[in-house]
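note to self — DONT lose this again. spent like an hour looking for the file last time. sequence + predicted structure for the chain T wanted, 254 res
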Amino acid sequence: MAAIADLIQNFDLVQSAQLIAIFLFAAIVKGFLGIGLPAASMAFLTLVMPPTEAIPLLWLSILATNSLQFARAPNKWDIAREYWLFALAIMVCIFVTSMFISDYPTSLLTVAIGVAMVLFSLNLLLGIKLRIGPGRGWHLGFGVLSGTLGGISSIWSPTVAMYLVARDVSKERFIGTTGFLFLAGVLPLGAGQVVAGILTFPMLLKSALALCVVLVGFRIGEMLRDRVSQELFRKAVLTAFLLMGLRLIANGLS
């Protein structure tokens, strides 16, 4: 009750309106493209708050949207059997790196978020395809990279998407697999943030409020898939992500 009372007492109308707009936009992107919630959110959240405050705000939203995404995927058990090692590597690395997030300099977090956004946008804009095989070693390597990036920035979609694009998986398989691999990292990410002291009960309440907005935006994004040119929307969003990512890198290095 004390946490709720404190939340009401410190209510800021302007910042609340900013956060609603940010989460609504990010959720529409997620619902439309199947990926991009953390990247879209962090691009704007870092304009109004430090990274260590912005990152835990996303936790419940990442959990809920990827649970929905994976729940709707066909062949769920087949996906889990194929990508279990990828998921395990993400879980271990995301937990270990997120445990120490409070100790990382703000500049490092800012640059890490910017790099993640640039990789994410360039990968999808240019359709970068690496020569990657189906072996377990690739799953382990990309899982470690994804988990490390996710623990520092809460964004582990760039390397996951890069791997799946390189493997030329179908759109349906891409949506299901990203849902599984993003979902795999959420609980370890939350546990690491609890250990680090940034995912507290008051922050969890704020994350729950953000989730209410995200669920609305996620549904809007899903409905827009058949009504808006996917290629046009995709290019506009990814170009914006690229510019925002470059800005974050520049700010972090300055």
